[in-house]
Every structure is written in structure tokens, then in C-alpha cells.
Design brief:
It contains four helices and twelve strands.
Length: 287
């Protein structure tokens, strides 16, 4: 009997480790609430809109992009003339140790000078609550995984962080085709880890109107002075992104659940098989 208990305990532990390892690979930023300090986005055109939610929709054919009039990039050194950052409110506490950024060509410089990754545990509109994340390992892929443009994929690894908010603060623009790109643009911002609490429901509201030139100038002046505050996006998330069918989106969202169920079924079958074998052996001994 002791052997049976030991075997069952070992199987349970193995299953728990496997499920935990899988959960840690999930993109917990998918469909969560984007955060920006400059709300003006590039004007919609034939390629679609450029809202903040595009960078968190799991679709690498939609992107967030700022208007180049708001960034004031210096063509001398590539520095932005205003403070610019993009982040995500995970809506609850989570632990994570990896971030992947799928940039458009107009991304950020791929170096320590290009941007800083930060996290915040609570009260994100208090600037002092944000802390830098020390990157332990990083890879930079020159060809992005979307079908409409070329860009870069940055995969950043670091010691596990426990927080609700994550962001990147941009410092220097990407340099391509003999110029610094003036429109920061991200196809996808992905955070890999595990939710520690049930995420809060998003607050729904109407889409914001495009700010006037006067509003933009005022906002940029505030950003340059370092006094910009946190402004969560108020654009409702499109649960079925452009170029993605409802079925395929559902498959993507439910893949983790399906794998978890499969692992549970496999473990249950193994446990039953072990018990049957032991019962048969005991009957033979009794006979």
C-alpha cells in the first residue's frame, strides 16, 4: 500500500510541475488593457487603424503606432523630443519572466539606449512606483513574424517579477534607410508568465475622439517636462482581429485549456492503470 501511495504522489507531483511549466508560457497580456502616455495615434489609412489595443490582440497584422508629429525625433542622434511609453495593465497580480516585442520597422533602437523595460506593483500614475527590469538575456530577430511588413522581434528574459503593470519607455528611435524612424510602432507586446489572481473585468467606454493640435502640443509639453500621467486606453478590444476568423481566435485562446485537459486525462489513465496492475498482482498472491 505504501508503494501505491508513493507512486500516486510522484505522478501527482509530475503532473503539477508539467501544468505549471505550461502555464508559465502563456501570453498573459493578450486582450488586457493597454497603457500609454500619449493617446494620439497615427491616422487610420488603407492599412487599417493604429489603436493601442492592436498591440495586445494576438494578431501580428494589426499594430499600434503614434503620429510622427507627436514624437519629435532628432535626426542627429535619434532621441525622442518627448517622453513616450507603452504598457499593459494585466488587471490583476501576475508573475512573469519574459517579454516579447514585435516591432514594426519604426520601432526603437535595439540596445540599452533604445528603451527600458519597467514594472509597477500598484498605483501606476505615481512615477516613483515604476522600477527598471534588469534583462538577463535578450535575442533580436531582424525579421518579424507578420505578413505585411518587416521589422524586429525582441525577446527579453529576466528574473521573475511579480506585478500588475508592465511597460517599455522609449528613448531612441530605430535607424533604417538612412533615417531615424519617427513613428514608434508595435505589432504585438507579449508578456509571458502566470496570473496569480482572477483578472478584473475591463471598464467599457466609448472610443476617444482624436485630440486637436492644441491638445497635442499641450500634452507633449507636459511629457517633455516629465509630468505626463498614466492614461489607460478607452478603446474597446476587438475580440476577432482583422484577418483572423472567430474560430481561429477561439482556438488560440483555448489552446492552453485543451492542453491542460489532455494532461489531466493522461495522468488519470496512468493512475488507473497502476491501480489495476496492483490489484491483479494482489489477487494472484491471494490465490
Amino acid at each position: 500500500m505504501k508503494k501505491v501511495v508513493a507512486m500516486l504522489s510522484a505522478l501527482t507531483l509530475t503532473l503539477a510541475m508539467g501544468v505549471t511549466a505550461f502555464a508559465a508560457d502563456e501570453n498573459i497580456a493578450l486582450g488586457k488593457t493597454p497603457m500609454v502616455n500619449i493617446t494620439n495615434v497615427k491616422t487610420a489609412d488603407g492599412n487599417g487603424s493604429y489603436e493601442t489595443t492592436n498591440a495586445l490582440d494576438g494578431n501580428t497584422d494589426t499594430r499600434w503606432s503614434l503620429s510622427q508629429n507627436d514624437t519629435k525625433v532628432s535626426q542627429e542622434d535619434g532621441s525622442y523630443g518627448v517622453e513616450i511609453w507603452f504598457g499593459v495593465d494585466l488587471r490583476a497580480r501576475a508573475e512573469f519572466n519574459s517579454v516579447t516585442i514585435v516591432w514594426d520597422t519604426a520601432g526603437a533602437d535595439h540596445s540599452e539606449e533604445g528603451y527600458t523595460l519597467q514594472y509597477c506593483e500598484e498605483d501606476p500614475d505615481t512615477e516613483g512606483n515604476w522600477k527598471d527590469i534588469d534583462i538577463t538575456d535578450a535575442t533580436y530577430d531582424e525579421e518579424t513574424k507578420n505578413s505585411t511588413s518587416t521589422g524586429y522581434i525582441d525577446t527579453l528574459h529576466f528574473d521573475t517579477v511579480e506585478a500588475r503593470y508592465v511597460r517599455i519607455v522609449l528613448h531612441k528611435a530605430a535607424y533604417k534607410n538612412n533615417e531615424y524612424k519617427a513613428e514608434p510602432s508595435i505589432w504585438e507586446f507579449e508578456v509571458y508568465g502566470t496570473m496569480l489572481e482572477e483578472p478584473e473585468e475591463p471598464v467599457s467606454s466609448a472610443a476617444p475622439e482624436v485630440s486637436s493640435a492644441a491638445d497635442t502640443s499641450s500634452e507633449n509639453a507636459s511629457s517633455a517636462a516629465g509630468t505626463s500621467s498614466w492614461e489607460p486606453s478607452t478603446v474597446s478590444r476587438n475580440t476577432t482581429p482583422a484577418g483572423t476568423s472567430s474560430a481561429s481566435q477561439a482556438d488560440t485562446d483555448n489552446s492552453g485549456v485543451i492542453i491542460g485537459i489532455v494532461l489531466g486525462v493522461v495522468a488519470a489513465v496512468v493512475v488507473v492503470a497502476v491501480i489495476v496492475v496492483i490489484v491483479i498482482k494482489n489477487k494472484k498472491k491471494a490465490a
